[in-house]
Amino acid sequence: MSALQAAVLGSGSWGTTFAMVMADAGCDVTLWGRDEAVAREVADERRNAKYLPGVELPAMRATTDAAAALSGARVVVVAIPSQVARRTLEGLREHVEPDAVVVSLMKGIELSTDKRMSQVIAEALDISLDRVVVVSGPNLAKEIATRQPTATVVACPDEANARLAAEACSNSYFRPYTNSDVVGVELCGAVKNIIALAVGMGQGRGFGWNTSGTVITRGLVEITRLGRALGAQPETFAGLAGMGDLVATCASPLSRNHTLGKYIGQGMTLDDALVATGTTAEGVKSSRSVLELAQKHGVDMPITAGVVAVLYEGMSVDDMARALLSRPQKAESAAD
Ligand SMILES: NC(=O)c1ccc[n+]([C@@H]2O[C@H](COP(=O)([O-])OP(=O)(O)OC[C@H]3O[C@@H](n4cnc5c(N)ncnc54)[C@H](O)[C@@H]3O)[C@@H](O)[C@H]2O)c1
Ligand SMILES: O=P(O)(O)OC[C@H](O)CO
């Protein structure tokens, strides 16, 4: 049987790593990116020194020619920053095969529409949501690129498409679990970045593990509250895409969101922190769209509101902590 043909759009850290995961799973992979030098290096030298220094990649094609990358691809994986997804995909629509399953690796919410990435993909490519699969979990690219073991969630309303995507990425170090709760899985991926910013802010300010444990736990409650209001399944939040990814992102110095939050907590401006962090920290922009989404649905998200106030309204991390702790007393509930 011939290998499953896959195209990965985006040659940054996660796109390149996921191309490696699929190549190691036996797929015939082409990586597409806008940077000619990166494409040449991946194809000719099996390296992507800018995004994955020191990593030796398996054999794969790499190109800046989208038509060539997408021709014949049964699985199309999207790994670009959330805020450019719509316009990038609209430009590539004509090249996507009519039966292709499209996989989102993105963990963000679109500014101006407050839409999840599966919704953006379906609209930009003019395809049904049944053909869009979401992959999300504790998946720090730099660990996976050295083939360290991890698991993930592969979510789609169409079970056969979820299974196809899971088979395309299943290998000895990467274990996918299928799920049909796309709303829950996507909200987990987007909101955990905001909670990681908050944890980083506290750590940068000098607060210890009690503060981090509090923010992670109450952050999970906040994600769950939004998810329930939007129709997600509560058990998703205790799973890999929820608790699993919160732990990885909030604890690891490899997380860009956690790192950027730490810089802010140490007193850097947002502009300087963005430059120091370098690659994509989705929570910075998605914090505003998530807060807007929560407000539209009447959901209280005090940590997210605090992160927005620190990033965009000049609030100090000390004042954010004071504001969070001085809210009215209430009984604890893991879901509310
Ligand atoms: N890196 C990780 O560990 C990781 C893990 C899971 C999910 N994600 C998610 O994957 C998505 C991509 O993140 P990443 O880590 O690969 O980011 P990255 O910053 O490492 O790479 C982003 C890539 O997108 C490209 N790009 C930017 N604008 C573009 C445009 N207009 N058209 C085409 N390409 C464009 C960049 O050139 C770069 O190659 C994000 O939503 C992120 O949250 C990342
Ligand atoms: O580096 P971050 O903060 O974008 O996190 C990467 C992944 O989402 C972790 O699962």
UniProtKB/TrEMBL annotation:
Catalytic activities: sn-glycerol 3-phosphate + NADP(+) = dihydroxyacetone phosphate + NADPH + H(+); sn-glycerol 3-phosphate + NAD(+) = dihydroxyacetone phosphate + NADH + H(+)
Alphabetized Pfam families for the sequence: NAD_Gly3P_dh_C, NAD_Gly3P_dh_N
Annotated ranges, domain Glycerol-3-phosphate dehydrogenase NAD-dependent N-terminal: 6-161
Role noted for this protein: Catalyzes the reduction of the glycolytic intermediate dihydroxyacetone phosphate (DHAP) to sn-glycerol 3-phosphate (G3P), the key precursor for phospholipid synthesis.
Gene: gpsA
Pathway: Membrane lipid metabolism; glycerophospholipid metabolism
Location(s) in or outside the cell: Cytoplasm
Active site positions, chain numbering: K192
Domain of life: Bacteria
Positions of the Glycerol-3-phosphate dehydrogenase NAD-dependent C-terminal domain: 181-320
Organism listed in the record: Isoptericola halotolerans
Protein name as it appears in the record: Glycerol-3-phosphate dehydrogenase [NAD(P)+]
The family this protein is said to belong to: Belongs to the NAD-dependent glycerol-3-phosphate dehydrogenase family.
Enzyme Commission number(s) of this protein: 1.1.1.94
Top-level class of the enzyme under EC nomenclature: oxidoreductase
Binding site for NADPH: S13, W14, R34, Y51, K107, A141, R256, E282
Keywords per UniProt: Cytoplasm, Lipid biosynthesis, Lipid metabolism, NAD, NADP, Nucleotide-binding, Oxidoreductase, Phospholipid biosynthesis, Phospholipid metabolism
Statement: the UniProt record of this protein carries the keyword GTP-binding: no
